[in-house]
Every structure is written in structure tokens, then in C-alpha cells.
Design goal:
This protein is mainly beta and 276 residues long. Helices cover 5% and strands 30% of the residues. It has two helices and 15 strands. The strands form two sheets. Strands 1, 2, 9, 10, 11, 12, 13, 14 and 15 form a nine-stranded antiparallel sheet that branches. Strands 3-4-5-8-7-6 form a six-stranded antiparallel β-barrel.
């Protein structure tokens, strides 16, 4: 059963329920402003009501890349609707420039969503990639997230100076989390933040060949609840090396689990929507 897993999901099971928990942003991060307009907030509905949120990367005007557990609630529930909010500071726009968490200005509705075909066959973190299709014309930008080549990041396993490999994590999740909800930072909620964690582990240990572990500390920053589905860009590029997927504890500390996008089956799944 999922409850027996040592992994902590960054959304759906312990993502921020909209009516219950206060929210913040990427841990120890900085305000993103207009740095990554192709990263948006994804709102998911259950039984027609706003329920959870994730982050995601636009790969085109209508194709959003996110985590599998942000598009498939198996076995607990089904999502009845989704929409994305495009502002960097969604919180500041509530009631003025947007109607968060409901449809309205600066929101684009989803018309379809799917997780990897094997998502329901094993623990969520084994195939944690999902796609959301937005209604036309979608979100028109000058540039979008890009994808790696097959097995591109295997080279990091033997690269000297592994600690020098850095990433850019972007998302709308908590800035800091502790065991009690009262400790959650309430300012700048639903606001896009950015951090620059380093590579801790790849192709071994607990991550197998499907994920990587990135640092999460006061020096580098990292990811937390609500950042699920958000991108971890390679260096300062727009190349989505991985998708924020899981954590090893409830404190959003130490390391963050990132689902790799450079595997053949993952790229095949994503490209089937980008190039139907």
C-alpha cells in the first residue's frame, strides 16, 4: 500500500488541499518574477470542486508537462477538471486579475490529461510523468521548456566533480515546511519561486535509473509540497532534466526526488502529445 512507502508525495496525497493548508514556495528560494513564464500553476478539481494544486512546464502553447500523480489520482479518486494559472504571483492577483481557484482571467482550462501508461502498475514514483492538454489557443509565449536526449544524464554518473552539476527548480509550492502546519510560511503563497539545488545521487542508491536526488538546504534551496510536477532545469537552460516528484521526509529537507525525463519510454510518452 502507498501508505507504507518511505517516500512522501509532493502533491495529491500530501499536496496542499486548497481549503485547509497555507502555502508558500520553493524552499529557500527567490522570487522568480518573469524569469520562467513557461512554468505555471496547475489546479486540479475533484467532483467539480477545487481540491489540489501542482506546478508544471509548458512545452508548447497547449501541452503542459507535470507529474503523473498530478494527472492521475489512482487509486483514491479521479480528477474531474483542471486549469492553469499563468501569473508569477497568483496570490497577489486573487480577486483582481484572476479568479483563483476557479475559471476566469489569467486561467486556461484543460481539455484532457493523462499519466504515463504504466503509472497505475506500480508505486507512483516509478512512472511519475503526466501531460495536460489545454484548450486553444493555450498560453502563447516566445519560448517553452525543452526536452533532453535519450539517457543524456547517465553521463553524470561518472563525471568528476559531481557536486558541480546544478539545476534550476521552479514551482508554486511551500517555501518551508515542518511537522506542524503552524510552522508553514504564509506569505507569498501561490507565488512562483526558483532555487538552484545540486545533484546528489543518480543511477544508484534509492533512485534506481528513474529518478535523481537533488540537494535541499538553506544554501542551495530545493522543493517542497505543491512543487510537484514543476521543472528542474539543467543549469540555467530551459531543458527539463526532471519533474519534481517525491521527498524522503515531511520536512522538505535534505534531498528532493526528481523524476527523470531522459528515458526512452518517458520521451516517447511526452512526444506522443507534442507530435501526435
Amino acid at each position: 500500500m502507498r501508505k507504507k512507502l518511505i517516500f512522501v508525495v509532493f502533491s495529491v496525497m500530501v499536496i496542499l488541499a486548497l481549503a485547509v493548508s497555507p502555502v508558500g514556495a520553493v524552499t529557500d528560494g527567490e522570487l522568480d518574477g518573469e524569469g520562467h513564464p513557461h512554468v505555471v500553476l496547475l489546479l486540479m478539481e475533484v467532483d467539480g470542486a477545487p481540491a489540489f494544486r501542482c506546478s508544471g512546464t509548458l512545452l508548447s502553447a497547449t501541452v503542459l508537462l507535470t507529474a503523473g500523480h498530478c494527472t492521475n489520482g489512482f487509486p483514491d479518486f479521479e480528477f474531474s477538471g483542471m486549469r492553469v494559472f499563468t501569473e508569477s504571483d497568483v496570490q497577489a492577483g486573487i480577486g483582481t486579475t484572476n479568479n483563483y481557484p476557479f475559471a476566469g482571467p489569467n486561467a486556461v482550462e484543460a481539455v484532457a490529461w493523462a499519466a504515463h501508461p504504466l503509472y497505475e502498475t506500480g508505486p507512483f514514483f516509478l512512472h511519475d510523468v503526466g501531460i495536460v492538454i489545454l484548450e486553444e489557443p493555450g498560453v502563447v509565449l516566445d519560448e517553452y521548456g525543452t526536452l533532453p536526449s535519450v539517457n543524456q544524464f547517465d553521463a553524470f554518473k561518472t563525471k568528476r566533480g559531481l557536486q558541480k552539476v546544478t539545476f534550476t527548480s521552479v514551482g508554486y509550492g511551500l517555501q518551508e515546511s515542518f511537522p506542524d502546519a503552524a510552522s508553514w510560511k504564509e506569505n507569498n503563497s501561490r507565488t512562483r519561486y526558483v532555487a538552484h539545488p545540486k545533484l546528489n545521487q543518480i543511477n544508484g542508491g534509492i533512485v534506481g535509473d528513474f529518478s535523481i536526488l537533488l540537494s535541499n538546504n538553506h544554501h542551495t534551496g530545493g522543493t517542497c509540497f505543491g512543487d510537484s510536477g514543476g521543472p528542474n532545469f539543467l543549469g540555467d537552460s530551459n531543458l527539463v532534466a526532471g519533474i519534481t516528484s517525491f521527498g524522503l521526509n515531511g520536512n522538505c529537507a535534505g534531498t528532493g526526488g526528481v523524476f527523470r525525463t531522459d528515458r526512452q519510454d518517458v520521451l516517447g510518452f511526452i512526444n506522443s502529445y507534442l507530435n501526435p
